[in-house]
Design goal:
The chain is an alpha+beta fold. The protein contains 18 helices and 30 strands.
Length: about 725
């Protein structure tokens, strides 16, 4: 008896010091793997694989007569996963929900809480803007309850989009063709593309002429170019070749005199760090990446990359779905010190940017989790795509904390008789942030040029003058970048919706890609006309922007989500009834191909599914033959002599493979060169594009290669967009 007391006391002590077993649920396995490495053995980190519970696919799933109550179900195929999560939750003393820090993530956590019998009012929710050891551990110390304002904003959007899509789409199936869909944001985006195409089709070009003179300054003997401006100090447009010739004839007898020289100093400020939309735009312009592709790459950088050494596995960027420009003080402090050490204090300027009113300012802008992790230092740890996007984000953020660039601008007016010419020069006197990053632009800008030093009254000699005919151009078609910018400027959609919206309208066949351009199809025009005539609110830009604003008010707790739907639905229901009566049957004939169905002999037709275009037999349902569309290159395979085809990987990336695959395993990422063989060994040549553009031999034993100029190449990445 006497010996038993110390044993009991010791056992009790062990129990009191035993650590709690904790379960942390995130959305993706990659993120789970990264975070698991940061936490001790008492944590189990698992992934929900996105949403586990959602509205059913087969029915509307919304009780419109009972306050729009959603009828949530376990997503098909996720039952075993949910069962597994429940088992893990039972083993744990505490469950923390660490899904993404946005509306969708909050809703996923709410659904998980209900499924796992966790009180949403308890401190069960954890959020972090970046996946680093410090950020994750700090976030776990400060869990909070689930934010029902965020959940309700997501519910409102989900239910609203479900009602619009599931109520209008069946009408389109009945009146036009099966497989079509309508959507609150996608229909507006399609209409914008169709409206732009109509502007282009209706555009009437106007002729105009320009005159450029090459002049030589008599003092310095240096040449400079000047463009015709007008007559007697007034601007004049030359609308014909006759008018231009008359000016040229006058110039032969004119003395050229420098009428005025004006020098000004101009500062150019750096752009703020990236938001979702500006990242997608810049990646589109610089790398020809589709918005969805950019987001996939950014997701991998956010979730964690194995760098090895003292850094281990780490998330390289902050959360990539954001419209905020806010930067955390710790990041500002680190950037200020790093840039001081790297470039000198004269290049550094601490800046905090103001987000637009509707931005979710709880997030930060997209930035590197540590500016000290330079792209060049980890290039060998990243894929080429990851490196490009990380470098873009790193440089943009670094530049945002640097001094403005300073230019000296020179504007010179040159008189020749009654005619006036203008010459403009620009010279960078201090590079500032441009030492790190130069933003891209959709508009081609004239290259900077330095004019010779000139003074008022100096003379110049005319070396030559040429006139050139031009025609005014219609507005350009939208690209991914310009459409996203337009959607954002008009307040349509939110960071998480831009990429899927574009993907949807392309996969549905409303829009097709040609290089970077988004071009509406006949189907796009037909469905847009139906929407404009019958559901004008749904495709009205201002109405859609107003709905987005109301969803933001729900998120802020200023508006009840059911109220938003009650205000929307009655008028929409009337439009549905009228549309059902008024829309006449429209037949869009399938485009016939020259491919013969090997089963029944008919010419196959082009069809569109959500996965893209394919060939199908028009004899359906008697003949159900389908096949993928074959796109040849006209280049013969070096291994078997078959034709090399353009193919797409599962992630949509273009590659080149033999028509006889899998019997022949030829495959290349770079473009086969047509009508040219290797001059040294006679093998296939491949063309690599981009910064290190070159033509090289496919034969590994042959070292032949030659550099090619950028403007000589056809950008394969543009083909990737088509």
């Amino acid at each position: 008896m006497a010996n038993s007391k110390p044993v009991k006391k010791s056992t009790a002590k062990k129990k009191s010091t035993q650590k709690k077993k904790k379960l942390l649920i995130v959305e993706s396995p990659a993120k789970a793997g990264t975070i698991q490495k940061y936490l001790g053995d008492n944590y189990t980190v698992v992934a929900s694989m996105g949403h586990v519970i959602d509205l059913p696919k087969s029915t509307l799933g919304v009780d419109v007569d009972n306050d729009f109550e959603p009828k949530y179900i376990t997503i098909r195929g996720k039952g075993s996963l949910l069962t597994s999560l429940k088992k893990e939750a039972k083993k744990a003393d505490e469950v923390l929900l660490a899904t993404d820090p946005d509306r969708e993530g909050e809703a996923i956590s709410w659904h998980l809480a209900k499924a796992l019998n966790i009180d949403p009012e308890s401190s069960c929710r954890v959020t972090f803007n970046e996946i680093t050891k410090t950020a994750v551990k700090e976030a776990i110390k400060h869990p909070r309850k689930i934010d029902m304002n965020l959940v309700n904003a997501q519910q409102a959007r989900r239910v609203l989009d479900r009602i619009v899509g599931y109520k209008i789409s069946p009408i389109l199936w009945e009146k036009v063709k099966r497989g079509l869909s309508a959507g609150r944001v996608q229909s507006v985006a399609t209409k914008m593309i169709c409206d732009r195409e109509e502007e282009i089709l209706n555009f009437v070009p106007e002729e105009y002429w320009t005159i450029e003179a090459e002049l030589k300054d008599t003092n310095t003997k240096k040449r400079f170019a000047a463009r015709y401006y007008g007559e007697n100090g007034e601007e004049r447009k030359l609308s014909s070749g006759e008018e231009a010739d008359a000016v040229l004839n006058d110039l032969s007898s004119c003395e050229f005199t420098i009428a005025s020289v004006k020098e000004t100093v101009k500062k150019r400020n750096p752009q703020p760090p990236f938001t979702t939309s500006t990242l997608q735009q810049d990646a589109s312009r610089k790398f020809s990446y589709q918005a969805s592709r950019t987001m996939q790459i950014a997701q991998t950088l956010y979730e964690g990359v194995k760098l090895g050494g003292r850094l281990g596995t780490i998330g390289l960027i902050t959360y990539m779905r954001t419209d905020s420009l806010r930067i955390a003080d710790d990041a500002l402090n680190e950037a200020e010190q790093f840039l001081n050490d790297e470039y000198g204090s004269e290049f550094v300027r601490r800046r905090q940017y103001r987000s637009k009113k509707s931005a979710q300012d709880a997030h930060e802008a997209i930035r590197p989790t540590s500016i000290r992790i330079r792209p060049v230092d980890i290039k060998d740890k990243l894929t080429n795509e990851q490196y490009k996007i990380y470098k873009l984000i790193w440089e943009r953020f670094a530049a945002s904390q640097m001094e403005s660039a300073v230019y000296k601008l020179t504007a010179v007016n040159v008189n020749a008789g009654s005619h006036t010419f203008k010459a403009n020069g620009s010279e960078i006197t201090f590079k500032g942030y441009m030492k790190v990053y130069v933003e891209s632009s959709d508009k081609k800008e004239e290259k900077s040029k330095v004019l010779p030093p000139m003074n008022e009254g100096d003379k110049a000699e005319l070396e030559k003058a040429d006139s050139k005919q031009h025609f005014t151009q219609p507005p350009p078609r939208f690209s991914d970048a310009t459409l996203i910018r337009e959607l954002e400027e008009k307040g349509i959609g939110r960071p998480s919706t831009y990429a899927p919206t574009i993907s949807t309208i392309v996969s549905r066949g409303y829009v097709q890609r040609s290089k970077k351009q988004l071009i509406p199809t006949e189907l796009g025009f037909v469905t847009t006309d139906i929407m404009k005539q019958n559901f004008k609110d749904i495709v009205d830009v201002d109405f859609t922007a107003h709905m987005e604003s109301e969803l933001d008010d729900v998120e802020e707790g200023e508006l009840d989500w059911v109220t938003v739907l009650k205000q929307f639905y009655p008028e929409f229901e009337k439009d549905l009834e009228l549309a059902q009566k008024n829309i006449e049957k429209i037949e869009i004939k399938d485009k016939v191909s020259d491919v013969i169905c090997e089963k029944c002999g008919r010419n196959m037709v082009y069809k569109i599914s959500k996965f893209g275009q394919f060939l199908a037999c028009p004899g359906y349902p008697e003949c159900k033959n389908t096949k993928p569309i074959r796109v040849g290159t006209g280049v013969m395979c070096p291994k078997c002599g078959g034709e090399i085809l353009i193919k797409h990987s599962r992630k949509g990336k273009v590659y080149f493979g033999c028509e006889h695959w899998p019997k022949c395993d030829f495959m290349a990422w770079d473009t086969p060169v047509k009508d040219e063989k290797c001059p040294e060994c006679g093998s296939l040549l491949l063309k690599k594009t981009g910064r290190n553009a070159k033509i090289y031999c496919y034969n590994e034993d042959c070292k032949y290669e030659r550099k090619i100029e950028k403007d000589e190449t056809e950008d394969k990445k543009d083909d990737d967009e088509s």
